[in-house]
TrEMBL record:
Originating species: Actinocatenispora sera
Keyword line: Oxidoreductase
Domain Ketoreductase: 4-178
Gene3D superfamilies: NAD(P)-binding Rossmann-like Domain (3.40.50.720)
Signal sequence bounds: none
Source species taxonomy: Bacteria, Bacillati, Actinomycetota, Actinomycetes, Micromonosporales
Protein's name according to its UniProt entry: Short-chain dehydrogenase
CDD domains on file: SDR_c
InterPro entries the record matches: KR_dom, NAD(P)-bd_dom_sf, SDR_fam
Amino acid sequence: MPAPTALITGGTSGIGRATAELLHERGHRVVVTGRTAESTAAARRELPDGIVVIRADSRSLADTDRLAEEVRTRFGSLSALFLNAGISRSTPIDAVEEAAFDEVFEVNTKGQFFTLQRLSPLLTDGASVVFTVGTGVARGIAGGSVTAASRGALLAMVPSLALELAPRRIRVNAVSPGAIDTPIWSKSGAPAAQLARMAEEMAAQIPFGRFGTAREVAEMVGFLCSDGASYVTGQHIAVGGGL
């Protein structure tokens, strides 16, 4: 019997990368996607041998179709799909531009939905689908309204998708990382001084008093992709140190 196969979008850094490494350690065949030539080249150099790295932009349905065909050709099926690709923008409402608004929704919402649509025929009966959402959907973050809305749309889809895929015993769940030490912070577009201030203020609000690690989120995703979570679907689990 072949090893289970997992696909992780946005798997070249941060939580996606940590999850790829964890699932690889546990015997999965792993495919990760990255959006840029630079990120995918670095991942090919640095990730363990055997992890397949594919360049694909989740905003592009042509890229998504190509990704699905490559997974079908290489592996035939998927047992886990971690829809993790996303971007974060920290912008007050009066400074949000239409192009930036559209980009966030194209990557975080549209891209993940259509990736699931295009790859769902490859999911085996009993497979696991996990969305990355974020605690910002329920906890206000100044300047985070657009990012929270794009991720919150995914969360709103989870119960319906869980019902829709239940006849195939495909489980659909969401994980919400809290304050996690990943590169997404530096890519948010906020000035370094603002990021440092936000990090300090957020750490002070976390009951555990610290940022989490990407590996700690990966452990939860790994559980949801395992047989140990065979009766868990339609759920939203926060990994945020009590935040």
